[in-house]
Each structure stands twice: as structure tokens, then as C-alpha cells.
Write a structure and sequence with these properties.
single chain; 265 residues; mainly alpha; MetI-like fold; 2 domains
Length: 265
Amino acid sequence: MKKFAKIYMALVLFFLYAPIFVLIVFSFNESKSRSMFTGFTLDWYVRLFHNRIIISSLINTLIIAVVASIGSTILGTLAAIGINSMRKVPKSVVMNITNMPIINPEIVTGVSLMLLFVFFAARMKFEFGFATLIIAHITFDVPYVILNIMPKFKQMDPHLYEAALDLGCSPFKAFYKVVLPEIMPGVISGFLMAVTYSLDDFVVSYFTSGSTSQTLPITIYSMTRRKVSPEINALSTIIFIVVLIILIIKNIVENRSAQSKGAGA
């Protein structure tokens, strides 16, 4: 059984990572062929950094992801604090409402936000662009932040906050010194998940973006409608390597913190 489990796991990993491996290999292909490797070259990486459309879209995507993630993390943290202080029945109702955007298909969210922005645009005279994209990204990021923070409240001793108040702390100082450090892993996880979803989002961004605020997924989609350029392979390779490095660093930091806690105990 162990051999079959290992074979099954190997097949699953091969199925998941073989396309990425092929993409990385052909990002160094000398020709534009997607089936024949004719020679090694770095020209596509050089052309990538000289492609103004891709670089502009990448900068737009990073700005939107960072701003939306910070905003959604602040709102999600405050919302999680409020939800945690509720009674059981209202808390359950609010959590179900909060989880609806996660279950809801993205195309429904995208179309709904587009119609909402169109309604306000006709009355407040603003155009689709960075503002609409950031609001849209915050909208679908907040539930993921709440989902990451709420379990940390369950793990925390509920009497710690009251004890800090009894010892003379102000409500803000008690939250900052006692509650926030306890839920900080959930806050960081929520922030990272918000960044990931913002960088990856296509459907909602497609319906809420303007002509001057194209994100990278939308630019790649518009390019693939004509013909896939090896520049896209180079860009995808860079993104994959950056994400891989971030995950490795995150795992190293978590392992070291776990070891330090174990040594302290």
C-alpha cells in the first residue's frame, strides 16, 4: 500500500508541476515554438523588461494588491474583533453572511460590483480605474482575512483582555499589548492570502477595471487571445520563482519560531 501511495503522490505532483516545468523550459527557448526547443537564450527576459505594457500592468497589479491587502487587513481585523464579541446566534449569522462572498461565484461578484460602480458613476462623475479596482479587491479580500483571524480568537484565553484591564491597562493598550500579539499570526496569514488573491484575480478585475488601469492577468489574457508570446513564459517563471522563495522563507521563519517556542517551554 505504501508503494501505491508513493506512486499516486508522484503522479499527482507530476500532473500539477509538469506544465510549470514546461513553461520554465520554454521561457529559455530561442524560437517562439511551443513544441520544439531550438536553443538556449535569455532574450525573452530582456524583451520582457522592455515591454512597457507588461511592466505597467505589473506595477498596477502590485500597487492594487498592496493597497487593497492593507485596507482589507485593517477592516478584516476590526470586523473579526467585533464578531468575536457577539453572542452565539448573531455571531453565527454574521459569519454565514461573511462567508457568502467566498462561496459566491466570482463572476456574480464582478458583475454586481460593476453595476454598483456604474450606478454611482452616473451620479458622482467618476471613472472606472484604480479606485474601483481597489474597492473591488478589498470587498473580496475582507472575508478571507476574517476567516484567518477568527480561529486565533478561539485559541486565545478570553480572560487575558479582562486581566490586562484589571492590571491598569487602557482598552487600547490592552488590545495592543495582549490581544494583537495573540492574533498576529492570523493577521499575517490573512494579509498574505489577501495579497495572493489580489495578484491572482482576473474575473472581478475584468469587470471593474478601466482602460488606464489594466492588471497583469487582464493584460496576459488580452495577449493570449492573439498569440502566446515567450515573454509571458518568462514573466510566469519569474513570478513562480518569487512565490517559491517567499514560501521557503515563510516556512523557515515558522520552523524557527516553533523551535524557539519549544525550547522555551
